[in-house]
Amino acid sequence: MRKRIMTGLMAMVLAVAGAFATGSVLQAQRAGGFEGAFGGGFHGRGGHRPGLELLRGLDLTDQQRQQVRTIMENHKSDFQQVREKVRAAREAQHAAATATPPDEATIRAKAAEIGAAEGDLAVLMTRVRAEVFQILTPDQQAKAQQLQQERAQKRDAFRQKMQELHQQQQQPKQ
Prior knowledge:
By secondary structure, this protein is mainly alpha-helical. Helices cover 80% and strands 0% of the residues.
């Protein structure tokens, strides 16, 4: 019984973590998408913006900061359109998943629409990131890549730790 409860609890934690990760992408879009283009992140008005943290670590000049603002302003409507597309696709999939009786084909089709919309988001974020990357000096580009690698290593270490914890909880008590 305890094992079943712990397994259920871990599944719930992983589901919430997955939802948070997805929410981070959507949150990044709400601010114009810049945070998503440089790592994504959770933030509120006047709050912490992890994607901008990466650029802060690059010591941008005032001219570079203005160029970044211009790039983001140029793509603001693009991010709004993609955000709306992702939101609508998620709502449609949720409606299909909660319909009675459930229709597996419709659920799969709506899930595919989410994938396509999130693919559009990934492409847009990559384009914007490339535009911003072009205004960086070679030293700033190298430092940005290093910071991204460090962030990826931290993320991988966290995932590994969660996987180990999950495996420990799956082992029978002796």
